């Protein structure tokens, strides 16, 4: 079967890894993430578009210096070239999923921790 069909809410909430790539094709990539207390994804700029949805937790998005509060159900759309960061400011892990267009990580990537992700980059 081409494509991907799963319960993304369940996969996001059950994920304990900093980053886990679930699906990759030539134009799109689906990734789940879990940010520990006080953790962030790390400020970055991509040459691609990104969509993020928070499934649980609280935090903030910072897009080109503008901060916006995030909570369950929040969506962040990050256009190409936007400096951005997602920061967990809540009392629990922040669970989210993200779509990259085009893909940003090698297919099958799993980074158990942020340190592991930083070392791989």
Automatic annotation (TrEMBL):
Gene3D superfamilies: Jelly Rolls. Residues 32-99 form the Cupin type-2 domain. It comes from the Bacteria. InterPro entries: Cupin_2, Flavonoid_dioxygenase-like, RmlC-like_jellyroll, RmlC_Cupin_sf. It holds the Pfam family Cupin_2. Transmembrane segments: none annotated. This is Cupin.
